[in-house]
Amino acid sequence: MAIDAVIFDCDGLLVDTETAWTRAERVLYGRRGVAFTLDHKRELLGTSGPVAQAIVERHLGLEPGSGVTLQQEMHELALLEIQRTAPPMPGAPELVAELRRAGMPIGLASNSPHTLLRPSLRSAGFDTVFGAVVSAQDVVLGKPAPDVYLEACRRLGADPARSIALEDSPTGVGAARAAGMFVIGVPSLPGIELTGASLVAEALHAAEVRSALGLRLAA
Fold first, then answer.
1. Residue 9 annotated as catalytic
2. I want to staple 175 with a disulfide (CB 3.0 to 4.6 A). Which of 65, 85, 115, 143 is the partner?
């Protein structure tokens, strides 16, 4: 099919912010006497808002309602870590640059608030490349609802059914599928299953990703 637009997720797909988030999560949990584990990370991956708050409350054995303050603390810690370092994921700069050279409209759809999203894009060198940058703050519901993807497509004048999303988490894959998009999954953590994706690849520079995006394969 002809492709109207390509929409990227940010954290863990386009920019390596998940290591920054992990450092922040270790600090937050450690302050409360809990060791942050890979299982904790897998459950939190791709979540935001009340969903993330409830998960953290449960992990830390706290009463419901304390998650709002915890999330604010987490965001402050994450921002410090992102400002320290948040490099692009392997293959991301090359893929974005080639899509732009091909004249493909590209956008970004993230569950992160703009206060974290913008610094992440600046840190990785992506702050001026997207025709649409949509945060969960810009819509009624964040992922796994389709709102961020539908809004990114709307801003680009693209039909979701003729557009492609790239995601690293089950939450994000669910959102893009709910928007009616073709979804390329690139897991950012070991053990993450992206069974709802239309295509799953090991990395952004994989040949099958380039083929699905209509790009010429390297010689």
1. yes
2. 143
